[in-house]
Structure formats: C-alpha cells, structure tokens
Amino acid sequence: YPSGNLAIVVVRETKQLICIVQEDKPNNAEIQAVFKSDGRSTCYYPSGAVWINMSVQGGQYLDQEGRRVRRWTWPNSVMSPGPHVPLSPIFISLNRHVGVRILGQDKIVVSFLAMGQQAKFNVGTKVQVSDVSQLPPLTRLGEDELLLLAFRVRILRLFDRLRGCLNFPSNEQWDKIKPPAYLITQTLKVLHLCTTSDISDELRSSVRAIVNA
Predict the structure, then answer these.
(1) Range of the domain at 198
(2) Where would I find the FAM194 C-terminal domain in this sequence (predicted)?
(3) Mind listing the pLDDT tens digit for each residue in 111-129?
(4) Coil, strand, or helix at residue 166?
C-alpha cells in the first residue's frame, strides 16, 4: 500500500499456491481474501463476515448478515442433483486499493491500484470434478464453532422479537408474527450441522435447546 504496509502476498504451501490480501494496517492486519490454486477461495467484509465463498463446485455471495444473495455452479462441475446456476459477473472492492473481479472459475482477477499504477493477479484455476466421489469431504465443525453458531442464531432471533415488540406493543399481535425467512433457514442449517457433526449427544441436545428456545 502507499503506506508501506503489505497488501498482497503469494505463498506456496505443499503443492498449491495461495494468494492472500491483507488490510492496510502495520500490525495485526486482518485477512480480507484468500485464493487457493485448488479452487477454494474466500473474500471477507471489513467486519470479518464472509462475503464470497468459492469451491471446485461453485460459489456463493453473502450479505453482511450471512444471508445468501446469490449462488452459482461452475459449468464443468459435477454437482449433487439440482439445476445448474450460471455465474453472473461479480466485482467487489475489498478496500480503496484492491478489487476482485470474478468472470469464471479460471477468470478471477485481483487488481491493485495505487498512485496511478496497477497490478493484476490472475488467481483463477481450472479444477474440474469428474466424479462426485472425488469431491473433498465436508468440513466438520468443532464443538465451540457449533455452539457459537447456535448462540448467533439465538441472538438474531431475540433481536427480531425485540423489533416485533417495539413495532407491535400488543402481545396478541407480535406473538403471531413468524421469524423472517433467513432466520428460519439459518436455524435449519444449524440443526442439520448438529445432526451431521461428530459431537456428543449431550452437546447435540444443548445446541438444539439453544436454537429452539
């Protein structure tokens, strides 16, 4: 960056290359994006929330509340049963100097612009999955992560009820209002993770109690 702080670094880890974008800070700079040559990439909002997440199958674009704005699949990927969703070009600005343009699996460009000069990094890759059995295994959440997700959903639901109380002071009115769709979806996701994760029955019961309280 013009400040002298490191903006973009490319490193090699075993057999793959990783491109990392950092925020403009001299110390403890947060990571704003990670692009891996195996097809997995993630971009983050300044708040640290996931903005864009991509894999060998496709990707999704999220808002700052964690709600999915759009999703897509790469043309040559073999997915689980479901319709193919094409990618619409995406351009985001990670900060005032670094932007990301996504046009295809092999056409992902990180652009850096400062003091009238520009540098571009092609971080796209052509990783095809010809067999569903070759897909990487799903990441298993740890106990702490699962509890944090459950508490996050619980807090969001409490805030939603608080808004309902303020908008409709009469108990008879706001008690009948259902949670918004994104909260229902997130609740179902946590319950699904609770079922598929390798955790104790006691923790599984605790997570369900937190989410359903």
Answers:
(1) 143-212
(2) 1-177
(3) 999 989 999 999 988 765 5
(4) helix
